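G., the chain you wanted modeled:
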Amino acid sequence: MRPKVALLTREYPPEIYGGAGVHVDYLSRSLAPHVELAVHCFGKSRSAPEVAGTDQPWEALSGKEPQALALQTLSVNLVMVKALAGAELVHSHTWYANLAGHLAKLTYGIPHVMTSHSLEPRRPWKAEQLGGGYAISSFCERTAIENADAVIAVSSRMRDDVLAAYPEVAAERVVVIHNGIDAAEYRPDPRTDVLVRHGIDASAPYVVFVGRITRQKGIVHLLDAARYLEPGIGIVLCAGEPDTAAIRDEVEAKLAELRKTRSGVVWIQAMLPRPELVQILSHAAVFACPSIYEPFGIVNLEAMACGVPIVASAVGGIPEIVEDGRTGFLVPFTPDGTPLGAPDDPEGFAKAIAEKLALVVRSPELRQRMGDAGRARVEASFSWTSLAEKTASLYRRLLGR
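Predicted structure as tokens:
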């Protein structure tokens, strides 16, 4: 008999904005053969049969300030818990749903599994974004992670970070199960209609970035690196809503300065549908991932699956994805120790990124070789089928089956 598992998440299709949402989307599909799955998520009602509940925050907690938004999240968690009667195990994702998982464990006496996609202590710059809300998110994460029956880390480096940030967590409770990708959905697309629609010159090589406008993703360092690239190399940013007004202003200023000296700079300020993103990735000369913190970096898998070489900072789980010199290049990163997590030598870091980007762009043969190797690595090591089997096996172990 398949176990009754409830997946708790803020994001679920069609409301996805980050890597954790992508993870939950594919994990839920791949778990279906192994468990009796019910998804509980935030937001509007979904028609998908696996979605057992969608929850809105309490109206009494209305407000746009970060503290109010954090309290609204807690109210959704409480509503989730009430709806979880009958589940045999809960699996929560991100701090937005972790407290619901912990409270379900207490309320119904069932195991709680949580996937650690990132860690609040490793993202101190969120205090700039959330104010007092950061203290609430940190509380939710700490409470859940220290009491969960199992913690899934999305990379070996992430496991190390969990044990270092939360020494109360027993090492045997933290298991590594990587993120995955559907290589049938992410594959090279030879068409160019999407490029034309967004004003991307398909005849010129371009560097592409995909990610949120946040300190974590290092977009400002890529814009600094672009100053050292040849003028004929395009820069395409698929980057939506910024975390704060401060980083929005910083990015806009750097873009304005960049456009004074080069053409081919395209900023797509939207969360693109998957087919459009795949086409933009497919025609890129190289994918840039200049993150200063990245527990895994699923976006690198997406680019690799489309046959694109990677130039990425050597942080977090990225070295477990990108094979330096084979599927791309890794750029060393040393933080300066400040809450913003900037590199200790910003100019040197930018130049190092530019050097590797230029090396890939200048050699079509190298691009082809690395792109082919990246696609092969995705197919061999990051299938959702095998990762879902590992997750289901963990469920069965906790349930004694």
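The CA atoms of residues 91 and 356 lie 40 Å apart.

Shout if anything looks off.
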